[in-house]
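Recall that a protein's primary structure is simply its ordered list of amino acids. Everything else, from secondary elements to tertiary packing, is in principle encoded there. The following example makes that idea concrete.
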Amino acid sequence: MSRYSDGSHQYSNSEISTWRECRRKWMLTYYVSLQRRERDVRFPTEVGNLVHGAFEVFYEAGGIHSDNAETLAREWLVERRAEDLAECIGEHHDTIIKAHKTADACLVSYLRWLDDSGADLNLRIIGAEDKMSMPGPLPGTVINGRIDLLAEDTRNGDIVVIDLKLVTSISEKIRMLHLDTQAKQYALLARERFGKPVRVAFRIVKINQRSARAKGPQEEEYVIHLNDGQMDTYLQQLTGLMADVQRTTDRLDEGEHHQTVCYPSPSDTCSWKCSFFPVCPLLDDPASDAEWLLNDAYTRREFTRPDSENGGKVTESNEETSGGQE
């Protein structure tokens, strides 16, 4: 879990999702606190980051109620493109070019969808990329959330949590959204802050360049209404999850081997979704030099695990105390 200087254990939706997805990925990301030394350039991730950034600029400038919000958002993409090309030269050049072209097409299409659907007409924007937190259900725990867009429905005063999803298939994404725990976590945080009815609106945008061959709707909104009972049930589930994470953390702290405590859960999303994809199979081969690759390609994040004092180097000694490979 993410440990901060004040001693609190702070749980984001990303950490909770990672825990459910793969314990090895959780260990490397949140327990050992590793991240790639060099920028990890993957097309879906690049497009998602770009559209989210432009989304934030658009709404911070006033959204549909501003005359220049669209201009500012597209100018931001142009400036970011120059920065990305300067940073990611060589092998990633074509990926960056394609990602920016796709992101601009997605943004323009989303803004046209806003005009056609009137989705924002009755919303008063509270904040974009709004950070919220509340005390967790266990002592010393905090629940965190970073909301893409927070708004109030001017017709009834309800709080609307808007989350932008970039997908390759809208129908496949919608199929499971009613079970999405992100909606419950964000609704829980909004209820804690505002004390009002909350609904979560997923704005789903299809990733493509909007060519003449693009078929079907390119944007869609899927709304989830959550009552107090549903949010309380999710909080109860979080209590069990956090207790499991704490027990796992204690076992790693006590020196139990990571292969027993944080075994991997491979899936067909690993190659594009997990930054530890290159090193994961090496961790299962005692004859490999996984430690060298960890030191060469990854470094520690400074904002977590304040007990780390080795300047980012993953050594044999601190891998052992962090549950790493012996």
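The first strand starts at residue 2 and ends at 3. The chain has a mean pLDDT of 87.
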